[in-house]
Amino acid sequence: MEPVIEVERLRKVYAEGAETVEAVRDASLRVAPGEVVAIMGPSGSGKTTLLSMMGCLLRPTSGRIVIAGREVQALPERDLPAIRQLHVGFIFQSFNLFAALTARENVQVALEIKGVKGMEARREAEALLQRVGLGDRMRFLPRDLSGGQKQRVSIARALAGRPPLILADEPTGNLDSRTGHQVVALLRELAREKRSAVVVVTHDTRLADVADHICHLEDGVLTGAGNA
Ligand SMILES: Nc1ncnc2c1ncn2[C@@H]1O[C@H](COP(=O)(O)OP(=O)(O)OP(=O)(O)O)[C@@H](O)[C@H]1O
Ligand SMILES: [Mg+2]
Fold first, then answer.
1. How far, in Å, from the CA of 17 to the mean position of ligand 1?
2. Does 180 sit in the ligand 1 pocket, CB within 6 Å?
3. Fewest CB atoms within 10 A around its CB: which of 174, 176, 201, 212?
4. Per-residue model confidence as pLDDT tens digits over 8-31
């Protein structure tokens, strides 16, 4: 099957004054539609760096990134927002919700950015929130939601517009273990149902149970990406 994303010998070297950090070294990976890949590794091993490059938030030092058949690593900066909007949904550990907007509005805004208008955006936001089990929390502000509920809003938002690629950076990091498990199970189900490719960075070994594939990152070196 044609991968949703393919990265080949991806490298990132950060230069901080005289210090350089080789955060990711020649990582290769491909992820197919409907597949969940977990990336595990200790703090500082380069997980967020790798994910950020995959999501076109950070430019690699060298290597290739192909998203939906298109090479993106060398595109000019002005083209990247459109690539992200069209192809990528992000889920962060810190939720990144707008504090002044309700759960529904947080999802609706993401749809509107993607060109879905008015009532249609509203209906779709409601359907997405229903899907993540928050049908009775649409009008709540983030501060009135639990951690797991906030994370589910951010998942609903990441799914807005059905991006083929979902990138999640420690989506269970701030959750208790039971809630974390629910979020993990939800990501698994959604990958199957929507045929999105999901790449999830985690310290959480339970995620291993639901991933189709587990990669390990150690000191910038990715192993276990057997299908690359
Ligand atoms: N903007 C930056 N400038 C310089 N070095 C950086 C920058 N961002 C990250 N690094 C370095 O790159 C390495 C990898 O960082 P990264 O954030 O990718 O790790 P991580 O695996 O996500 O860690 P954690 O599990 O703690 O989130 C670290 O040594 C870090 O200090
Ligand atoms: Mg990180």
1. 16
2. no
3. 176
4. 999 999 998 889 999 999 999 999
